[in-house]
Amino acid sequence: RGMLARDVALVSENTFSYSYESGTDRATKMVVLQVDPATHRMTILSGPKVLAKGPVRFLASLSLPSDGESPMTFTMFQRPHESCMAEACRISPMGRIADCKDIAWADNELVDVSAGRLSDGRAAFAFATISGTLLYQLLTPKETGALP
Q: Exposed e or buried b for every residue in 42-56, given b needs 16+ CB within 10 A?
């Protein structure tokens, strides 16, 4: 039951998001944590924020460039027999999760995904479908929610 899928993404210096699937609560959640550089102790700044209810096939997080205001998180997941979704959330300077929005980004049922940010701000995704087909996709900052 406990914690199932999980991932982390850098938010800003000494601050990261931790996304996880809680088997006990049957929900995917995210918290924002800060690491004290001197003691290495972690403190929860915000969350847990429920991103999705029910089981997920996979869970992956991506750090997004900020638009000069606040950094963002991009957490990808897929509930069984549904399209792939992401939750893009702005993180305030105090580490608070805000302005989250759902983004549909792939129509296939997937078994896993890997993502990274390119130097031009686009997000690159490599993923495998249930049938074993390997695919890729590029999203612009606007498509990931990093820009209005």
A: eeebbbbbebbeebb
Question: Is the pTM value of this prediction over 0.90?
Answer: no
pLDDT in tens, 97-141: 999 999 887 888 888 888 888 888 888 999 998 899 999 989 888
Q: How far is CA 47 from the centre of its chain?
A: 14
Residue 141 phi, psi dihedral angles, 5° rounding:
-55, -35
Whether 44 and 29 have beta carbons less than 8 Å apart is answered as no
Overall size of the chain counted in residues:
148
For the chain, what is the radius of gyration of the CA atoms?
A: 15
- Provide φ and ψ at 144, rounded to 5°: -85, -5
CB 70 within 8 A of CB 89: no
